[in-house]
Amino acid sequence: MPALQPVADPRDRLIVALDLPSVRQAEAIVGRLGETVSFYKIGYELGYAGGLSFARELIAEGKKVFIDFKLHDIGNTVAHGVASIAALGATFLTVHAYPQTMRAAMEGKGASPLRILAVTVLTSYDEADLAEAGYAAGVEQTVDRRVAQAREIGIDGIVCAPTDAARVRGILGARGAIVTPGVRPAGSDSGDQKRVAMPGDAIRAGADHLVVGRPIVAAPDPAAAARAVQAEIAAAL
Q: Any idea which residues are catalytic in this one (predicted)?
């Protein structure tokens, strides 16, 4: 696993999730955020509505892009999909933290600078959800096992709930990035997330990047909301 490079600028630690149904809406939010935000996440909703073309535009404008597609398929399919995303110029790409999938993703990225992030257990899952899905192990045990496997394979980083970040950092050591969704600034609704934390707490627990969507995108003043999160990050650093 590559050595972790310190992220000095709080702007680069905040990733704004463009979980929106159209490129037009995403363009409007990016326009309102301006230079306040340097890093964006594109997931299924926007990705399937022209988001990959929009990602190219953002990258051409000097923004960083996190493609959150959580790939998981047979190895050959994953490797070729990752190669396509690497050619796009994205900074991060998620895959599910299954050993075969992680190995294929690392093969697919080749010598490109794309960083593969392994998703451990979704932040909307709790113990009951894992039990319902047939997992014998609970959240902590499942996360820890997958992080250990990811480290052995050499994955570039981990996506985990902020409540798991300190434990994950203990397994990764100083190597590998930790990216945490489920971050909610003070006064925000947790929505459909079940394992959440405030920005400062997530940073102090060992997270390198925080993914924040609705509390910024749906705010009356998105730029002010983003700056407030960045201020919490800076204070925690």
A: 70 (proton donor)
Please give the full DSSP string across the chain, using - where no structure is assigned: -PBPPP---HHHHEEEE---S-HHHHHHHHHHHGGG--EEEE-HHHIIIIIHHHHHHHHHTT-EEEEEEEE-S-HHHHHHHHHHHHHHT-SEEEEE--HHHHHHHHHHHTTSS-EEEEE-S-TT--HHHHHHTT-SS-HHHHHHHHHHHHHHHT-SEEE--GGGHHHHHHHHTTBSEEEE--B--TT---TT-SS-B-HHHHHHTT-SEEEE-HHHHTSSSHHHHHHHHHHHHHHH-
Q: Is 109 a catalytic residue?
A: no
The residue among 14 and 192 whose pLDDT is bigger is 14
Active-site residue, from 63, 64, 70, 109: 70
| Binding residue ranges | 19, 41, 68-77, 123, 184, 193, 213-214
Per-residue pLDDT of 74-91, as tens digits, reads 999 999 999 999 999 999
